[in-house]
Amino acid sequence: MARTAKPYPWLDRNGRLSWFKTLIFIGLFLPGLFVIVAKTADMLGARPLNEMIHQFGLWAIRFLFLSLAISPLRRLLDWPRLTTIRRMVGVAAFAYAATHLLLYITDQNFDLIKVASEIVLRIYLAIGFVALLGLTALAVTSTDGWLRRLGGVRWRKLHQLIFLITALALVHYFIQAKADVVEPLVMGGLFLWLIFGRLIARYLAQDRVPVAWAAAASLVAGTLAGLIETSYYWLYRGVDPIRMLNANLSASTGIRPSWYVIAITLGAGLVALMRKSKFPPPRSLSGSPLQSSPEGR
């Protein structure tokens, strides 16, 4: 008999309360709750609804990134338990993105014709709407029931669209950000690092990504983030590219996005090293490492 899916995200597969999943579940509500409280306390500036739209959209992208990062971090940190929260985080990203659109509709006085025309006429809105449609499809089919209906192969192929959806969300955020592109550039670098991690795992034909390879991917992703920033300011702001490259190599202009990318990703590698030194893989009586169980993957 097939195992019945558990309807509550705070329960494990055996129906028992999981404190890890419970804490994550509560944590996913906190950013939205903070925004609502800030709105009630009149802390969102002169255009509070516009700021709410921005904040919910921002957290949607952050949670989307977190859901995408779970598999690589699970490999890097050798922490199988992380996979138990991936679905929850992905659905939270959809919920924040849907609220982002709903608040925008509210800002337009529920004039759906105007909203539709704005989406058609403004390229960044069209890109964001397509990303939301894709995220909706993934949220709807994220259940065990849909996994059984589609079959494992088709379900995995469908959910690989998460990479395209994330890329579209990034472009939407980058265009919308206009002057302040620091966080979109950091997210872009992190996205490249996540892609590199998957490519490395596939190239090495192993589930875990060696820390040295992850560190190399950090440097490449950070460098590319710096080049993207340089190209943006050169093509759209007319800033001398040599000047921008020098800014990335000097602390006089503040910390550039490329260095944030390198620091965050190398930090993940450092945590992985510390975790492995504290919890070394078990060894058999003959001294060879034991292979991971299927559940650990």
Walk me through what this model shows.
- The chain is an all-alpha fold.
- It has two domains: 167 residues, no CATH class; 100 residues, no CATH class.
- It is built from twelve helices and no strands.
- The longest helix has 30 residues.
- It is globular, with a radius of gyration of 21 Å.
- The N terminus and C terminus are likely disordered.
Distinct helical segment count: 12
**Cα-atom Rg, whole angstroms?**
21 Å
Oligomeric category: single chain
Distance between the termini: 24 Å
Summarize the biggest pleated sheet.
none
Order of helices and strands: HHHHHHHHHHHH
- How many extended strands? 0
Principal-axes shape call: globular
Question: How are the elements arranged and paired?
Answer:
Elements: H1 19-40, H2 48-77, H3 86-107, H4 112-121, H5 123-140, H6 144-150, H7 152-159, H8 162-177, H9 182-204, H10 211-237, H11 241-248, H12 257-278
Helix pairs in contact: 1-2, 1-3, 2-3, 2-8, 2-9, 3-5, 4-5, 5-8, 6-7, 8-9, 9-10, 9-12, 10-11, 10-12
Brief digest:
The chain has 12 helices and no strands. It is an all-alpha fold.
List descriptors:
single chain, 297 residues, mainly alpha, 2 domains, 12 helices, 0% strand, disordered C terminus
